[in-house]
Amino acid sequence: MAFDVEKFMENVVTKNPGEVEFHQAVREVVESLADFINANPKYMEFKILERMVEPERAVSFRVPWVDDKGEIQVNKGYRVQFSSAIGPYKGGLRFHRTVNLSILKFLGFEQTFKNSLTTLPMGGGKGGSDFDPTGRSDAEVMRFCQSFMTELFRHIGPETDVPAGDINVGGREIGYLFGQYKRLKNHFVGVLTGKGMEFGGSLVRPEATGYGSVYFAQHMLAGLKDDIKGKNVALSGFGNVAWGAAKKLIALGAKVVAISGPDGYVYIKDGITAEGVDYMLDLRASNNNVVAPFAKKFAGCEFIAGKKAWAAKCDIAFPCAFQNELNLDDAKELIANGCKMVVETSNMGCTADAVNYLIANKVPFAPGKAANAGGVAVSGLEMSQNAEKLAWSEEEVGEKLSTIMKSIHDTCVKYGKEKDGSINYVKGANIGGFIKVADAMIAQGVV
Question: pLDDT digits over 374-427, tens only?
């Protein structure tokens, strides 16, 4: 019997009502896997996809804490442990008002494929809270993190589940979370990645997601007999991910002409400078959630309120902010403005119809589970350094990251090659990520 995508999705939606982000992530995967599954019926026999779309465990808990006014606040906390078939659960923690179970399930499901693509022994998981640290004092963030970890610590461990950072969870938050874990367990161990260098962190980790996506774009361009040097680039977001991408892009001779935030975007006529890249982090460090100040600080910049970076003319677009930030209208605008490649650096940064439109119009598109795997790859390298009680040099970590991203690109090419010779990176990433996890699940029995 042939694999029926619509029947499968009907069952997923019925079992997970209202979880639209999760439905979107699952549909993208199963649509691109359908032909492969039909050609390899053992995966239907062992009900691999049916098992993969169900998390092994999902934990929800309350997080009570006291703000600076002495008032008690209560947030929701989560950890979704999706797959441990090839290693301990691995995935970030996100602190944002939009966090809910649907978003964390989509992220954990995607993480399973992403981690598999890195070739490192890491399963998939994700967690977080509807707490937003923006505008909160350091003391409030510390108290929240300590309360969050007081529940989370019983569900994680270096060989069980190793969380990391994600949106609004950077070095400060990881430090507070790690300190509370150590306090509760009386055990100094690498249970979190993204730590400070003083207590087991890895060089290149803050830049890794952005760096990795640029490396991936380089390999895509090389396959087209092209180069990133001289390309005009538009970025969304201005946190660690966009910062890392901008830093690597200008080092390679590209010109970042647009960066954006929720208030609009800044057009940078001559491209962002190294000083401008550093200022991107300064804005985030000051709990500033807007980019307008960037245009006031640097000459040759124009702030366009209420618009996305995709309105700027560019050769390559790097969505680096949030899920579904680039929609069909944005995709049409990018193509009309001459964009020749989209590298999804955020998790599921493009809507499904935007992805389909880009692919239909022969615009090379790199899905996030492949292009943004650099972050979790270096997290995996941090785990290795912690296990060996070592600290590798920036050069060593950078070389390993570059090698991993080339391997991911090669895997996507291997499984994504179409009959006309073009590369469908979405299909390639999904099949490449699926095989390792699926075969491990078959080998381990019905668990």
Answer: 999 999 999 999 999 999 999 999 999 999 999 999 999 999 999 999 999 999
The rounded distance, in Å, linking the Cα atoms of 79 and 89 is 10
With 80 as the cut, is the pLDDT of residue 288 above it? no
Regarding beta strands 232-235 and 301-305, do their DSSP bridges make them parallel or antiparallel, or are they unpaired?
Answer: unpaired
Partners of 440 in beta bridges:
none
Q: Write the CA distances from 295 to 241, 303, 304, integer angstroms.
A: 20, 6, 9
- C-alpha 143/C-alpha 30 separation (Å) is 41
How far apart are the C-alpha atoms of 2 and 24, rounded to whole Å? Answer: 22
Helix (H) and strand (E) counts for the chain? 17, 12
Over range 154-174, report the average pLDDT.
96
Residues labelled as active-site residues: 126
pLDDT the model gives residue 285: 67
| Number of C-beta neighbours around residue 218 at 10 A | 21
Burial class of residue 313 in the structure, from the number of CB atoms within 10 Å of its CB (0-12 exposed, 13-18 middle, 19+ buried): middle
Among 258, 255, 246, residue whose Cα is nearest residue 301: 258
CA distances from 66 to 129, 179, 181, 226, 446 (A): 16, 18, 19, 55, 45
**Half-sphere exposure at residue 389, Cβ-oriented, CA atoms within 13 angstroms:** 1
Q: Is 411 helix (H, G, I), strand (E, B) or coil?
A: helix
N-to-C CA span, the chain? 24
396 contacts: CB under 8 Å, gap ≥ 6: none
Q: What is the pLDDT of residues 210-244, one digit of tens each?
A: 999 999 999 999 999 999 999 999 999 888 899 99
pLDDT band at 272 (very low <50, low <70, confident <90, very high): very high
